[in-house]
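Final report, closing paragraph on structural work. Over the funding period we assembled a curated collection of sequence-structure pairs, and we close with a single example.
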Amino acid sequence: MKTLGYYNGKYDELENMSVPMNDRVCWFGDGVYDAGPCRNYKIFAIDEHVDRFFNSAGLIKMQVPCTKAELKALLQELVNKMDTGDLFIYFQVTRGTAVRTHEFPENVPANLWVMLKPMGTPDLYKKIRLLTQEDTRFLHCNIKTLNLLPSVMAAQKAKEAGCQEAVFHRGDRVTECAHSNCHILKDGILYTAPADNLILPGIARAHLIRICKKLEIPVSETPYTLKEMMDADEVLVTSSTKLCVAANEIDGTPVGGRAPETLKNILDAVMDEYMEETKA
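Its predicted structure, as stored:
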């Protein structure tokens, strides 16, 4: 299969799939999701993604209709049906199918979705341009919900400005990006926003922290400001699909480029880990 859509046990090419209009995702975006890369038919960091998925579901009082082990087995089974093993894997759970009402429907099972499409290996060494925007999202950013309209709008604004990602800030405090986490290197230390309710606890963020500690680069999980980001030695952006890349411009102003050796060591280590864990 070139692409794959799965819904409650049924699967086909994405273009052939449909879902009920009364799925609560249509009315409320009532659900959570997770996503990540696959290479050589091996799903990268699958345990971490499934753990976060179940945690997000629990935080909105939603019961995933399978166990963690069953979900991992299903995802691998679906991956094995694809023409290529280099894929983007997306899965979500929604709060069932019922006539529209704000309150939770009773005795209605949740709906499980999966989407697979081809995706190549990310290029970690191509720098990106960023655009800053005020963070006007709600205060549950630690939950990976389907309510992504602010991120969609921010990503589109960044695209129209010729940038690859938008950096959110609440006042002067940098939080995260529209669909990534962001970090800075300054004087040999990695600074990253704390994993509170203002950011998503990114899987790639966690890998970056572990890699920096392995490289004996100190890590400070503390808030930092827009000015500190602009003055940083390097600005890093992490996500499950891009892994880790550096920025060379924010709002049209050049940034970073002051710690090239440290940056290369980090990017090499991130890529080495990905290639090793997904080798054929």
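The chain has two domains: 2-116, 126-276. The longest helix spans residues 260-277. We thank the funder for supporting this effort.
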